[in-house]
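Limitations

Structures in this collection are predictions, not experimental determinations, and the ligand pose is part of the prediction. Treat each record accordingly. The example that follows, with zinc ion as the small molecule, is included so readers can see exactly what is and is not provided: the inputs are given verbatim, and the output is the predicted complex.
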Amino acid sequence: MKKLFIFFTTLVLTLSSVTFAMTPTYTNDAKFNRGVGNCCYYVDGSASGYANQISSAANNWEVTGYGWNPIYMTEVSSNYATHMDFYGRTPYTDSYLTGTIGAYTSYWNSNSTLVCNQTAFPTYDYFYTEIILNTNESASYDYRVAKHEMGHAFGLAHYLNHYSIMYPALGGMYVTTVQQCDHDTINYLYN
Ligand SMILES: [Zn+2]
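Predicted complex:
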């Protein structure tokens, strides 16, 4: 049986309120408290198998094809003071990776306390994020996954629009790249 690959972070959205007009409904107005103009990310050895997916995601968010946004990504070799840290884990080493969970993002303060539980989206600004990829799930290597989780790290929640990289499941996401609505939400948050 084909497994449904879903992303862990959950948010209740009412379909009736979702429109294609650009009022960003898929953010809690929480974001990196130091912006994204010098966004440093670190890929742990445990996530080295995703190096291409992660760099592709960084490039896509920088240059979306929909005009300017403030994102500038730099890969660095340690997780000191980074915005995003990528780790590969399995359900045996991470209790959040249960069922069909392929990846999730968690949000942290500068003193390394959690801003919110991994099952929720942040409601206030945060200092850094951790992106956990389930190395036991082949679908986690899909290039859309790193782009989707990076969107969460920037502060985007789920969006029940099949033409958004923030659609909450791969089966049902009709796009492979960051879309205008995703791009516009970055500008809404950070400009
Ligand atoms: Zn998600």
